[in-house]
Amino acid sequence: MIDRYSRKEMSGIWSDQNRFRIWLEIEILACEAQNILGFIPAKSLKVIKARSKFNLKRVLKIENAVKHDLIAFLTNVSEYVGIDSRFIHLGMTSSDVLDTALSLQMKQAGLIILGSLEKLKQVLRRKANEYKNLNMIGRTHGVHAEPITLGLKFALWYDETTRNIERMKKSINVISVGQISGAVGTYEHISPKVEEYVCRKLGLKAVKISTQILQRDRHAEYLTTLAIIASCIEKYTTEIRLLQKTETLELEEFFSKGQKGSSAMPHKKNPITCERLSGLARVLRGNAIAAMENITLWHERDISHSSVERIIIPDSTVLLDYILVKFIDLVHNLVVNEKNIKNNLEYTKGLIFSQTVLLKLIEKKMKREDAYKIVQKTAMKCWNSKNKFFDLLIEDKEVRKYLNESDLKTIFDYSKSQKNVNYIFKRLKI
Length: 430
Fold this sequence. Notes:
By secondary structure, the protein is mainly alpha-helical.
């Protein structure tokens, strides 16, 4: 896997061993239900439960010949069970097992992702509170606007992560369904009670209606949720990249001992993790599009979705888990250059208070159009000179008719931008 990332728990969910283990569990549970309904003798069920197992290499070898994974699996299981294997898969079709197992795998993977999102939320909470009152320049269109605090930036990401947690919970709920309804979903050869029994035992809900397969809008919603989460991470990493530009250098990725940034330029410290995560978000968005393409299938089913899902579902869950783990570490170790933040806040020599000056002049009974004209004229002088905006305003006769030096000092106070920060944090319950 990329970097030195290793999450055996997530990758294990998508292993052949785990997939076949779930298949076997489904088949045995179905046999239990059939026994309760009187279709499988108790003696045969006892044999099935005692002898049922599989050999991974053997299944793959059989599949190479028969070109059908579930038939290969059932063939191998029957080799261990013997004559009573005739009761296994009774009245079922392949997708009853495949789709129910896939739902369980997606639920398992989703819960891991949900755990990572909760960890990210807590890291962002800590950072938001740590830098709650650190003034920095806010930017619109990439241009200096008015002061904000760094804590508000983290708080915004915290709030978005909270929404992503809710999205993930919903998508897990949507995919946590199973089906055992037969060839075209009519239960002609199997009782719906078998489906209900198996799903309950697996921690899934029995789907209300299906064809031969679960409908793929569920899978599309799940993968779209992963793509939205990844896109939010890309948003954050893009912000960090912008703030790590040499001319700005307010935030930067932690640069470990021995790390090198460029083969040609020894001075370089590049935001490589942010760039990597931004790139991987594109993969997840592409996979989400493929999932939406899978919604449309022929009649009661075809298998055009199957080959796609074998790639996009495991890859997307593993990738997002990786993205979250790396981003949590990145935020935890993020370097905050407070000196540069202060220098950039003062870079425009006070122009960031132009709206406050405008509003104060209006408050003092100056017409808005006249106030705007005067403030803009003075601001342009500031842009084109080395003079401070405060000094130019004091020298302006029209301004002095309405504002004295004390008024202007009150206006040019950075702490005013923090007056509602506590209110915002309280509303976020952060």
